[in-house]
Amino acid sequence: MRLRFKVQEFQTEAVAAVVDCFAGQPRYPGGVRNAPIALGEGRLLANVRAVQDRAGLPLSEALAGGDVPNLDVEMETGTGKTYVYIRTIMELHRRYGWSRFIVVVPGVAIREGVLKTFAVTADHFQQLYGTRPRCFAYDSSALHELDRFRSGAGVQVMIINLQAFNSASRENRRIYEELDGFQSRRPIDVISAARPVVVIDEPQRIGSARSLESLSRFGPLLVLRYSATHRVRHDLVHRLDAAEAYREKLVKRIAVIGVDGVAGPAKRRLQIREVIRAHLEKERELHGRGVKVLSLFFIDQVVKYRDYRRADQLGEYARMFAAEYAALTSGEPDGPYRRYLASIPVERTHQGYFAVDRRTGRQVDGRASDVDAYDLILRDRERLLSLSEPVRFVFSHSALREGWDNPNVFVIGILKSGEGGVSRRQEIGRGLRLAVAQDGQRLDDPATVHEINELTVVTDESYAAFVAGLQRESWTGEVIDGRQLTKISLNANFRRYDFQDALSRISPRVVYRVEFDSSLLIRRCVEAADARLSVESAQHVVQSNQHVAIFPYKSGEAVDLVGAIADRTRLTRRTVGTILTRLRTATFALYRANPDHFIIATAELINQEKSGLITESVSYQVIDGQHEIFGGRSPRLDVSRAGPRLAKHVYDHLGTGSAFARELEARDDILVYARLPGDFAVPTPLGDHHPGWLIVLTDRIVVTAGDDDPARIACARRWAETLDGVTFSASVLPSAHRSADDRKLPPRADTRPRAVQR
């Protein structure tokens, strides 16, 4: 499997928050040392405050780091902060020429995760920037890598463990010693001479005075800190907290199953049973979609899973797991999923990762007998995600609490007593990332994201106690009670003839076709740019005690203008080149005023014209085949919070959309209706459109648009034109507010889709 990456707005906003703090910094050619920050303290503070202001963050009164800027980025676990700081590294190099970076991590799991992310994103960043970062892990026995860091071309990134420069051990003190094998140089001097940009991953783990003093010996140009749980605040320039991450559907939703009322081994057995049960339920649902399901256990003692005193080395929890797994899978009905289960022996479907077994003192890592498990769990994320890999359940003590995660962890079992600090957040964070299928595509369609992406946490305390503990750790996301979730079945309204007739009208499969003359697109883009293109001149400010001087900003950086616009518009270089050469001289001259803004604004105008032309030109044709619209999983709801029973919907209760459903319930002209499942989509050239509701009235059938881009909605109107007896409406809600005697949708003639005209 190869993970696929795409540019996401919430991540580019986090990148821009850091990069824009240095707006006006000249770009110097790369060398063996990062160029100094040329901005005065006043200008730098003004930049930081401008970034904070646009993000709605508290404004800094003064720079926290004095001569060395210290910027904080807060991102909820699972939203891709490692990707964000790697892209920030690439953007700082592109904009300002800085090329020497150090990533400081607190432990082995985070280090291996960071190295893996650098590896799997290399091609992605090569496409975006035309180059890729060279990264390595600092090793005092391989100092030739440090020479390459000092003198190598391009972006050089060193990843270093906290212990490598903050430990009293003889090996780790070598960084401060003159070494014969290193030409009588001190490694720390070579590092500090580069004036590196220092990135700290999980700074709450590196917050001691001794650690901070050690960091200063790197001679950092600036320091960037990335975490979901900052303990010490500096200049906060970006925040994506748990509530926003959930609201924007960037992470899984969380359901908690509390096991209390029993104690001792019986409690742990019940928890293990609930984890396996939740795992199998999710696996039945997703196996046919090509999604590997993983579960993670956090345990209190290594010996509970791996007991070296026994011949089979199976600890108490491992033996419980084997017994419960056999019992819960024995009754699986015949079919593809049962055959999948039968292909995996129970002893091969679970594995453990432990940094150190403190009872025996045995090192459980790549140098010990557990090398295969170490590589699979910590380094080979893609293999662990493959359906051909039998391991589906992972046991860990504390080594995986931070730094490691896997997008397909759907169940977490906490077989240990609660701890202080941020342990609950750290533990659930291992499973918050959105899942991926076997083709490497992330399952992040907004219409279905929380139907698929749900993390079940099985804990040894009640739901209320667990949520209260999370809130004490400043958790702001939503958590639901897993024991209150009930599967909602389709009711008698679904089987009504008029509803089945309506379903049959919208379920035919279709293909679309787009035909237009490229010369028309070129002409419209040129006209739009000449009429509407606006570019703000870039400037930098030089500020002294009594005077402020403003100068035009000149980058000096060579830019592939045609390529940059082609990448953002998905047009050929030839088409983009033709558009640019036909612009008026005054329009094209705007490029010199601000190249970056010119590229962004021009690409946006081109995309607008392209979308408009597509919506005018698209046509649909019905082909053989039908969509099974309600053939997927039954929704799970907390019925006690779902409101009154619905009389006309095909489900008795709804979660989201309940307010609109009550409006429809009150209308006499509506016979039956349904919120369409998120996996039903209308294909359009601009991406799938997910319609909102199917409504059967006394005189017609209406499909409403989903919340979407207007251009995709316009394409969906064209789709509805090919269907027999179906009206497409952008919204039916306004008519619901009419008087009782006139509570009807607009007449069909008023809502028939029409071609978009200019």
Automatic annotation (TrEMBL):
It comes from the Bacteria. Residues 737-758 are annotated as: Disordered. Gene3D superfamilies: P-loop containing nucleotide triphosphate hydrolases. Residues 49-229 form the Helicase/UvrB N-terminal domain. It holds the Pfam family RE_endonuc. Residues 656-699 form the Type III restriction enzyme C-terminal endonuclease domain. One of its GO terms (molecular function) is type III site-specific deoxyribonuclease activity. Residues 738-758 have a biased composition (Basic and acidic residues). This is Type III restriction enzyme, res subunit. It comes from Actinoplanes derwentensis.
